[in-house]
From TrEMBL:
Originating species: Aristolochia fimbriata (White veined hardy Dutchman's pipe vine)
Location of the FAD dependent oxidoreductase domain: 78-451
SUPFAM superfamilies: Nucleotide-binding domain (SSF51971)
PANTHER family documented for this protein: FAD-DEPENDENT OXIDOREDUCTASE FAMILY PROTEIN, SARCOSINE DEHYDROGENASE-RELATED
Pfam families: DAO
Protein name: FAD dependent oxidoreductase domain-containing protein
Source taxon at top rank: Eukaryota
Annotated GO CC locations: cytoplasm
């Protein structure tokens, strides 16, 4: 049954076992799920459901921190808009860190479904370094929290695979490292210097051509220098997000089984056209809308985000061609990148179209062909055999790029009281501008945001991440 009594529901899943995850690919319609939710509400009025007009509260909104200690029959209600890396990380951390003695109901809204935006198409390359192998701001924290979330998602997926066949034990993560050959003479010394300042948990090794080719035989190393990140990895973003959502569902069930206060999560496949659509329904609304945050009328022109469309190409090696990608060899980072997902499956990316605001994942044959030409040309400089591989699919996403600061491009976090008309008491929050590093950032940002929401204060957020508001 879709709306299991343990407080977990996914829309459009009434024919599935409780807990099975809907993805962007397989969500068809939310009508069945919604009908079920409404029926459950009639038979069980304590159930948390998306309130319609008739159930809208007219009383002033409660402030979470003020009412947290007094337990009431109504769950605290929180809406998370967007089910990408940012949104699901916020959901996980809200569930994980909310007091056991408090009710919490989280409604997730996504117009496409889990992984429906940039997260679902990302290449999934994960490491904490800049293009010149310089450690990024707060890299250690980001790396640690991301590893925690990956482990959580993997554990949930493995447990489910053992339990049933609803999610197969297909890989979420390839821990094969990443190789970055120098592609310009001027970068050799910089890479060498930066390689001395890597993280202990994600080391950097500077090496010559022979050593690099020992790890990846067909690699070209034009300047006899490469940086190898043995602990870097690539993630299958859709599988990962589905597994993370499953972990959230499991956490809700664990709370219920332990006899603590009620936690609930629900997913609604619904477009939020303006924040007024949710008015009165929630104590807190967290916006994790990626590149489309700017498109809400309340936020138009108020977020310092630039948009950039990118295409990734999925490649296969034709049966009659030799030159398999060696099993276990590192993925490659260069002017383009390849993420190896098997000996005959690669993902290659990505393009940067700063003039496009198109967020559609669908790629026309013309766009695919242009992207393929551009990416193959770049990649063949360091991996010439890429020319033997053929395109099987192309997908695209819109990045939300934050402005460059002296610390690098930093995401945009904070409470939107000063920005959203009528907002008070930290009702609206944003996690945005994850740029091209959503995977690295999402664990840490989700944890920070959940902490701020639960304590109802922006004071726990690093100043660097909220300083964008001063410039408004
Ligand atoms: C081609 C490409 C390759 C990339 N490769 C990598 C990589 O290898 N490694 C890496 O770390 N990062 C990569 N990135 C960046 C990464 O994808 C982003 O940083 C990350 O996905 C942002 O996550 P998010 O949750 O903020 O946004 P999104 O994933 O875009 O999530 C926003 C969600 O909100 C939903 N939504 C939007 N508007 C509405 C609305 N009005 N109502 C309801 N729902 C709505 C969308 O459907 C979407 O699911 C890549 C990006 C692109 C485009």
């Amino acid at each position: 049954m879709a709306t299991a009594l343990c407080g977990v529901s996914t829309v459009c899943s009434s024919n599935r076992r409780a807990g099975e995850v809907d993805s962007a690919a397989n969500i068809r319609t939310c009508l069945e799920g919604k009908k079920q939710l409404l029926m459950d509400q009639r038979t069980n009025p304590r159930r948390c459901s998306r309130p319609g007009k008739a159930t809208k509260r007219t009383a002033p909104l409660r402030v979470l921190s003020a009412s947290y200690s007094s337990s009431t029959a109504q769950p605290r209600k929180c809406a998370v808009l967007g089910a990408g890396f940012a949104g699901l990380s916020v959901v996980w951390h809200l569930l994980k860190h909310s007091p056991k003695e408090s009710n919490l109901c989280i409604d997730i809204y996504d117009e496409i479904g889990i992984g429906g935006g940039a997260s679902g198409v990302a290449g999934g390359l994960l490491h904490p370094y800049s293009p010149k192998a310089k450690l990024l701001w707060k890299a250690a924290e980001c790396w640690r929290e991301c590893q925690n979330l990956l482990a959580t998602a993997e554990a949930a997926a493995n447990a489910r695979a053992l339990d049933s066949n609803t999610i197969s034990a297909r890989r979420l993560v390839w821990r094969r490292g990443i190789m970055k050959p120098a592609t310009a003479a001027k970068n050799v010394d910089i890479l060498k210097k930066n390689a001395q300042n890597g993280l202990g948990s994600c080391r950097l090794e500077f090496m010559n051509r022979d050593a690099a080719q020992n790890l990846l035989s067909n690699l070209c190393v034009p300047f006899d220098s490469a940086v190898y990140m043995p602990q870097a990895m690539n993630v299958h973003p859709q599988r990962y997000l589905q597994a993370l959502f499953l972990a959230c569902q499991n956490l809700v069930q664990d709370f219920t089984a332990s006899g603590y206060k009620r936690k609930e999560i629900h997913v609604y496949k619904e477009t939020i056209n303006d924040l007024g659509q949710l008015a009165g329904d929630y104590d807190v609304v967290v916006l994790c809308l990626g590149a489309k945050a700017n498109m809400l009328p309340e936020l138009q022109g108020k977020l310092p985000l630039r948009l950039c469309r990118g295409v990734v190409a999925h490649l296969a090696l034709p049966k009659d061609k030799s030159g398999e990608y060696p099993d276990g060899s590192p993925s490659i980072l260069s002017d383009a990148w390849v993420a190896a997902q098997g000996t005959r499956n690669l993902v290659m990316g990505s393009t940067w179209d700063w003039s496009s605001k198109n967020s559609s994942p669908f790629v026309s044959p013309e766009e695919a062909s242009t992207a393929m030409d551009e990416l193959t040309t770049k990649m063949s400089v360091v991996y010439p055999s890429i020319r033997n591989w053929t395109l099987t699919d192309a997908r695209a996403g819109l990045r939300a790029m934050p402005p460059l600061t002296p610390l690098g491009s930093l995401p945009v976090l904070g409470c939107l009281d000063e920005i959203v008309p009528g907002s008070t008491n930290c009702k609206y929050w944003i996690v945005g501008g994850l740029g091209s590093r959503g995977l690295l950032y999402h664990g840490w940002l989700g944890k920070l945001m959940a902490n701020a929401v639960l304590l109802c204060t922006e004071d726990v957020l690093p100043l660097e991440l909220i300083s964008w508001k001063k410039k408004q």
